[in-house]
Design brief:
By secondary structure, the chain is α/β, with parallel strands linked by helices. The protein has a single domain, classed as Rossmann fold (3-Layer(aba) Sandwich). It contains 8 helices and 5 strands. Helix 1 links the parallel strand 1 and strand 2. The longest helix has 11 residues. The mean pLDDT is about 95.
Length: about 160
């Protein structure tokens, strides 16, 4: 059975890693959709799809890499066209993992099971919070996996984010 997990992963953090593990406990193969893949270098979407893919792949072990494939999912203004676009990008899936009400509603009209993802420390583990901590020079590196931490340090994330 195949599943789909879509997220922006701006940046990929420990909550996302836990969501990946949760989803993989329910399916054989997991398609990971990098949402807003057509947007980059904006305050709320600072990392390109390629950068986010690098963060994810550098943060997971080989046993997870063998079970996932990463796809770029662009934003569209029309939600119906958005899920139709997803159909053209990712292979068939039986389950979508989402906490988004609109996504739940749209997929409930199809023969796709929608499973909510348990949140892990949602107050701290959010991309917005982590980006704000980086910019304000506060402790953030314990909120992301080592691969993401190394990536963000490599690109000098503080200056990168401040310049947006």
């Amino acid at each position: 059975m195949n599943g789909l997990l879509i997220g922006r992963f701006q940046p990929f953090h420990l909550g996302h890693l836990e969501a990946l593990r949760f989803a993989l406990s329910k399916v054989d193969k997991l398609w990971v959709g990098l949402g807003s893949s057509n947007l980059s270098t904006q305050k709320n979407n600072p990392f390109s799809a390629e950068q986010r893919k690098e963060m994810i792949l550098s943060s997971i072990d080989d046993s997870i890499k063998e079970k996932i494939l990463i796809y770029f999912i662009p934003d569209l203004d029309n939600h119906i066209k958005w899920i139709e676009k997803i159909d053209t990008i990712v292979p068939k899936f039986d389950i979508i993992f989402s906490n988004d009400e609109l996504t739940k509603h749209l997929y409930s009209k199809r023969s796709v099971q929608v499973i909510p993802i348990p949140f892990l420390k949602r107050d701290k583990l959010s991309g917005t919070n982590i980006r704000d901590l980086i910019i304000s020079d506060q402790k953030w590196d314990d909120l992301v996996p080592d691969g993401t931490k190394n990536f963000l340090e490599k690109i000098n994330a503080k200056n990168y984010l401040k310049n947006l």
